[in-house]
Amino acid sequence: MNQAISIDVGGTQIKWGLVSEAGEILLREQEATEAQAGPMAVGAQIADIARRVYETAPDPDAILGIGVGCPGLIDETREINMFSPNLYNLDGTSWRDIPLVKHIKDALDALGLSGRLDVRLENDVNAMVLGEFLYGAGRGVQDMIGMTLGTGVGGGLVLGGRLYRGAGSTAGEIGHMTVVPDGPMCGCGNFGCLEALVGKAGLIERTLSAITARGRTTSLEDSLDALKALDDDAPQMIAKAAREGDAVALEVFADTGRYIGTVLGSLANLINPELAVIGGGISRAGDVLFPHIEREVRARAMKQPADTIRVVPAEHGNDAGMLGSAALILRPDAAGIDAA
Ligand SMILES: [Zn+2]
Fold it and tell me: How many structural domains is the chain composed of?
């Protein structure tokens, strides 16, 4: 059965695996990203990982190529990293217009693997959505919205059974849909984006103002330092307090669900999908979040699209990106890639 090497490039760690066409993860490992040495070094690192996997695989002839998921904007040829704020050049600036696929292919040439392995690059959230579509919660549907809730709010669309990229390959940025016209400033420069309200910083900011402005008793007063430091664990602390019945935390998650449901309700009216799949750390809040999303979607969308859409948690967690990156090679039809 066909296999692909899957690479997930993060600012601090590169995770990789070997994935079969059936969606089995045959191997998984990770190591520190050589980000401090610049993009060419990262390309060489990815090629060397591929060489190691290829040389030790039981059936190297089954490996068709390398699918790479990377944060940031990827161009329409899926070869160039147009902008990745969390990956840096030698001079400390963020990656812009980095020909990452060329760097990888040049390094493969130098390793004597020239032409043997195809290389395809995709935005990491699109890869996650593709993974859930083919191997997770989205199996069998044709039209689906995918979202990740974490530090940022990512999104992707599957329309007619294919990943949808739009005219300039940037489609699916659900996190930057405006929810509150004069709301908090977002990292993208706009105000009141979904991400500015329910991303990690927005969630914590709303929690802090709920605690201080209303002077209510809450178990979260014990976690004020972690909240103020925007600690990575802070969203889970708020979720835990909510599950334990803390009124302030419950209200913060109810509002979070309303904001997300408002956006999904509009999207349901626009594209009439069968499914919205929500993953990422904050989505693990589960029962204190999902019913509020559902209720708001039903309240906002017209009857027919509201009756059609199901809102479900992602099935694969962190593995979805690995499965989706491999699918760039193994399932080009679903990845929306036309045969060369
Ligand atoms: Zn934004």
Answer: 2
Cα 167 to the chain's mean position, in Å?
20
Note down the domain range covering 33.
3-129+319-330
Same domain, 156 and 95: no
- Distance, CA 13 to ligand 1 centroid (Å)? 25
The domain that holds 242 is classified in CATH as: 3.30.420.40
What is the pLDDT, as a whole number, of residue 301?
98
How far does the centroid of ligand 1 lie from the alpha carbon of residue 171, in Å? 14
Residue 338 lies in a domain: no
- Ligand 1 centroid from CA 220, angstroms: 28
Band of the pLDDT at 340, cuts 50, 70, 90? low
CA 98 to ligand 1 center in whole angstroms: 23
Q: How many residues does the chain have?
A: 340
Q: Give distance in angstroms: CA of 245 to centre of ligand 1.
A: 31
Dist. CA 138–CA 328, nearest whole Å: 17
Beta strands 94-98; 118-123: pairing state: unpaired
pLDDT tens, position by position, 30-64? 999 988 889 999 999 999 999 999 999 999 999 99
